[in-house]
Write a structure and sequence with these properties.
12 strands; 214 residues; alpha+beta; Amino acid deaminase
Length: 214
């Protein structure tokens, strides 16, 4: 089922809405999937990739569902399986399950993209975007955007991260924030600007220092 969905995503061009990422998790300091799985995913999507940098949609959605690597925050795929992240985005708990998407004639990547890309491309308070800040590549128009989404009546929040490059916003990742207090959000915004959450660019490696846009 997963690889059938990947094929449909590829045919529809949906991976173009996702940026680049390294498969080496910055918290676990190890690959979240094997090299064989990395290349199998990219082959299924007909995307050329050079280990360890690949398409963030493949790695952060389908790769995380395959991953058995335990990180300090648990299994990567839990964000899609346990319904918490979906709820924090105001969606039904089963929204990001493979079989639920398939039953509706959709894909998990399609649903994730449709849910999070607007929070990056057009953030707005009315949409629940309670924190938005941009960190730019010095001397370039490329910038990375962090948006924290809080849905009224739901505990926790979701952090959406993406990059605008060549005038187009693309998703890097999205994950749940369990305790998004004002203090924790202030601390998040005060962290030194850099590329985060395993993001990569063709010309820049992960964790490259950036500059806050004002």
């Amino acid at each position: 089922m997963m690889f059938e969905q990947i094929a449909r995503d590829a045919a529809a061009g949906r991976f173009n809405d996702w940026a680049l990422s390294t498969v080496i998790d910055e918290n676990a300091q190890s690959p979240v999937i094997s090299k064989a799985e990395f290349f199998r995913l990219h082959a299924a999507a007909n995307i050329a990739a050079t280990w360890p940098i690949g398409n963030a949609g493949l790695l952060h959605v389908y790769g995380y569902l395959l991953s058995k690597v335990v990180t300090p925050f648990g299994l990567k795929g839990d964000r899609w399986r346990n319904g918490e992240l979906a709820g924090q985005l105001g969606l039904a708990p089963a929204e990001f399950l493979l079989d639920a998407a398939d039953a509706a004639g959709e894909t998990v990547l399609q649903r994730v993209t449709g849910s999070v890309l607007p929070h990056l491309a057009r953030p707005a308070r009315a949409r629940g975007d309670v924190l938005v800040f941009d960190d730019e590549v010095p001397g370039e128009t490329t910038f990375f955007r962090t948006t924290v989404v809080s849905t009224p009546g739901r505990s926790g929040a979701a952090l959406v991260y993406g990059v605008c490059h060549g005038g187009r916003m693309r998703v890097v990742t999205v994950f749940p924030l369990a305790h998004p207090s004002p203090v924790s959000l202030d601390a998040l915004a005060a962290e030194p600007p850099r590329m985060r959450y395993n993001a990569a660019l063709a010309a820049l490696p992960p964790r490259t220092p950036l500059r806050r846009r004002h």
